[in-house]
Write a structure and sequence with these properties.
By secondary structure, the chain is an alpha/beta fold. It has two domains: 303 residues, TIM Barrel; 63 residues, no CATH class. The protein is 53% helix and 9% strand. An eight-stranded parallel beta sheet has the order 7-6-5-4-3-2-1-8. Helix 4 packs across helix 13, helix 5 runs parallel beside helix 6 and helix 14 crosses helix 16.
Length: 422
């Protein structure tokens, strides 16, 4: 019998050829999909019209939120099914950090004013924010929403952006957590233009390159599906040269543009879910974060109205969390109790199941649920989010899982960064 003369596969040569063929694809993947961003994501963004920003705003906001719980404790307890511990945790959060992310609004919440009036409001609001930063009172995340780059409002929006950033910057730096929101985005060209505008502002004010980051407000159908049928929001993310920090869904503008009747406009409408699913896919792996929109049913009025408003808000926040939207808009101080209650309930109720699955995976045990490495990353990220917002403590997580924050961060695939919990 003759010896088998077949040559083996030249794996070295094959690998070299594949590396050469795929080098551009490898570079594009690393550039366009860098993975999770380091650091904490706020659970909400509070919108306040620019002319209402004054030195006492933060204290007044916290007091209104706390008083809503004091005055309607029975209603909140009913919404939370008698969970007094959860109410106590909410009150503690409102005491130590009532606002995680503040957006000073020069757009719809502020309206059209004379140029002199808006100029003055921009400078005064920037001065107040600078005072808060200097006094270490500022929320950990803050910024402005200025008027869009659509032609009718373009000049005014850019002027407000420039005036505000100029008044806020100190020694060539912006505060940590500062971001600006670009509303009513309808084209990739606008995102590219915003990138150039940010570069120009940085250069003129002596700021570091990349210091000015922005969020895109997805509130126009054209941003989701373009005239050629392509998903423009995905192209927008990659047209920002790494400056896009988030995609925020705009509930009511988007619904209205689709012709949805006003009493049916909601962040849980099927059309809203479709838009947000597209946003979610577009942002995946890019480090760009997602935010759901707002609800306009405020917990104000008599006891029944407050209970109904809180019940609706709690349910919607929980719904967003379950769908992977870990941030949303709040429009009134009385929405803060249910924002935090929903987050705390979500993460605390998920602590033990998450820990059990992590333990089973790490020990290679045969359990009812067999998780993949991607799910393990999600489980670790879940625990980190609970820590970030204050729903969980380090002791809670370490005691239950035996894992410290650095280990969880590594498992979640996040860059390790000094973390400050809410």
């Amino acid at each position: 019998m003759e010896d088998d003369q077949r040559a083996g596969v030249d794996l070295e040569a094959l690998t070299a050829e594949m590396d050469q063929r795929l080098k551009d694809a490898d570079a594009a993947l690393a550039r366009d999909y860098p993975g999770a961003r380091a650091g904490r994501q706020p659970v909400h963004t509070v919108y306040v019209p620019a002319d209402q920003v004054e030195p006492e705003l933060l204290a007044a906001y916290a007091n209104q939120a706390q008083m809503s719980v004091v005055e309607h404790g029975a209603e909140l307890l009913a919404v939370l099914e008698g969970d007094e511990d959860l109410v106590g945790r909410v009150l503690a959060k409102l005491e130590r950090e009532p606002i995680e992310d503040l957006r000073i609004d020069f757009e719809d919440g502020y309206g059209a004013r004379s140029d002199d009036e808006e100029d003055e409001a921009a400078r005064e609001a920037a001065s107040v924010l600078a005072q808060w930063v200097k006094g270490r009172e500022a929320p950990p995340f803050q910024g402005i929403r200025f008027k869009s780059l659509e032609k009718p409002t373009r000049t005014r929006g850019l002027r407000t952006l420039a005036l505000f950033v100029e008044a806020l910057a100190t020694d060539g730096k912006l505060p940590n957590g500062f971001v600006v929101t670009l509303p009513k985005v309808t084209s990739v060209d606008q995102v590219e233009a915003m990138t150039v505008a940010a570069e120009c502002v940085e250069k003129d004010l002596g700021l570091a390159s990349g210091a000015l980051r922005f969020e895109l407000q997805i509130e126009a159908p054209q941003a989701v599906i373009g005239s050629d049928g392509t998903i423009l929001v995905a192209r927008m993310v990659h047209a920002s040269a790494g400056r896009c920090a988030g995609l925020h869904y705009g509930t009511y503008d988007y619904s209205a543009d689709l012709g949805i009747a006003p009493d049916q406009q909601s962040l849980e409408h099927p059309a809203a879910d479709h838009a947000k699913a597209v946003m979610q896919a577009a942002a995946a792996g890019t480090g760009v974060r997602l935010s759901d929109g707002s609800t306009n049913l405020l917990p104000l009025g008599d006891a029944d109205d407050v209970r109904a408003g809180w019940a609706n808000h709690f349910r919607l926040v929980r719904r967003s969390l379950e769908r992977g939207f870990y941030q949303g808009w709040d429009l009134h101080p009385a929405q803060l109790p249910t924002r935090y209650a929903a987050n705390f309930d979500f993460f605390r109720s998920g602590l033990e199941p998450a820990v059990e699955r992590l333990r089973g995976y790490r020990k290679a045990e045969s359990t009812r649920i067999q998780d993949e490495p991607a799910t393990v990353r999600a489980l670790a990220a879940f625990l980190l989010r609970g820590l970030d917002c204050g729903a969980l403590s380090d002791a809670d997580v370490v005691t239950a899982s035996g894992l410290n924050v650095n280990k969880l961060t590594e498992m979640a695939g996040r860059p390790i960064e000094k973390r400050k919990a809410g």
